[in-house]
Amino acid sequence: MEKLYTGKTKDVYQLENGNVLLKFKDDCTGKDGKFDPGENSVGLTIEGIGRENLKTSVHYFELLKAAGVKTHYVSADVENATMEVLPATVFGHGLEVICRLVATGSFIRRYGEYMEDGTRIEGGYVETTFKDDAKGDPLVTKDALAVLGVMTPEMYDSMKEQTLAITKVVADDLAKKGMDLYDIKFEFGYDKNGEVILIDEIASGNMRVYKDGKIVDPMDLTKMILA
Amino acid sequence: MEKLYTGKTKDVYQLENGNVLLKFKDDCTGKDGKFDPGENSVGLTIEGIGRENLKTSVHYFELLKAAGVKTHYVSADVENATMEVLPATVFGHGLEVICRLVATGSFIRRYGEYMEDGTRIEGGYVETTFKDDAKGDPLVTKDALAVLGVMTPEMYDSMKEQTLAITKVVADDLAKKGMDLYDIKFEFGYDKNGEVILIDEIASGNMRVYKDGKIVDPMDLTKMILA
């Protein structure tokens, strides 16, 4: 298999059938030996975390498939920590799509003058940021994405609609387990027909979840999702 | 006349006919005695600049009236440096609407990875930021403005459409004078029927203008606009 890309937490290989294989690694983003999904460099290795993240992703990709939401997910081999996915092109040099059900974090840092931390956002709010550490992951609007040639307004509308639907599937699953999803981030790409689909993974490190009024640590969250 | 508000560069009075009177002052925003339209505190006083800014605003408000764009402008008394305007409510605690015809400044600081400084943006690009020095005037999307209860999506669409039309009127006027409008910022409000209209002023300090490849100083720009 030809290796296409060596990532921080995943390696990417070309499959002969035209699909792509993601190999989940035990390397985690973090700082000073402490796991932090918001960090952009590998900070530590946790034995078996690659498989745990893969199992979490498979759990949600299967729920999405059942709900009729098409994603890049094809199949997984948990033993070998690999997931087969459809080929897709990422938007720009990395774009994060955030869906917020409860206003907190950077949203409140920006707009705290207008909304109290912890306010529930009816129906959810979707925003996009460029992955760019040096620039502090700048917010980018639908109109700017079009001007910059990153995606068409129609692609944005499809991505936003899918984000709201996918977030609802994840939030409903967490609610059944007694947990409250505050916000979640995704990555999208587009296939050879220009169709926008969810790519990458859906793991504990990509969401902020509360239980009984307290934030749930990503490691505990994985266990509770897979319980 | 009842004084409604004491501003940095304008005072605001209630008129008996229901309209509002803006009194343009000679105080300018700036720092260390140097005029800087981007600063938020009064830095110096320039004899007669209130009247010059009023004349510039009248010039553009009259052009807009002729082009069929309704604004808050009713009439002006240049001698006394006052402008009569329709009453309007501002959005939130201050919202700036920026229209960019050439990508530069904060747009490039945010998105320089995707576009070269000085790239012309066909048709123009509109974005909104909250006036909030401590937070660095954060960008805010159409969806966030709705979630925060600042304006409805329909109000945003009207504001964006007007911004593009108004920018074209100003850019065409500057082009006739041999100048090139890069970007311009506006303030909008809404009247008692919820109709969105341009408020405040249209002065040299609100736009970035180039001539023969060099940026034009706001004081020189005023003279060239009024020449």
UniProtKB/TrEMBL annotation, chains A, B:
Signal peptide: none annotated. One of its GO terms (molecular function) is phosphoribosylaminoimidazolesuccinocarboxamide synthase activity. The keyword Ligase applies. InterPro entries: SAICAR_synt/ADE2_N, SAICAR_synthetase. It holds the Pfam family SAICAR_synt. Belongs to the SAICAR synthetase family. Pathway: Purine metabolism; IMP biosynthesis via de novo pathway; 5-amino-1-(5-phospho-D-ribosyl)imidazole-4-carboxamide from 5-amino-1-(5-phospho-D-ribosyl)imidazole-4-carboxylate: step 1/2. It comes from the Bacteria. Residues 3-214 form the SAICAR synthetase/ADE2 N-terminal domain. Keywords: ATP-binding, Ligase, Nucleotide-binding, Purine biosynthesis. It is an enzyme of class 6 (ligase). This is Phosphoribosylaminoimidazole-succinocarboxamide synthase. Its EC number is 6.3.2.6. It catalyses: 5-amino-1-(5-phospho-D-ribosyl)imidazole-4-carboxylate + L-aspartate + ATP = (2S)-2-[5-amino-1-(5-phospho-beta-D-ribosyl)imidazole-4-carboxamido]succinate + ADP + phosphate + 2 H(+). GO terms for biological process: 'de novo' IMP biosynthetic process. PANTHER family: MULTIFUNCTIONAL PROTEIN ADE2, SI:DKEY-6E2.2.
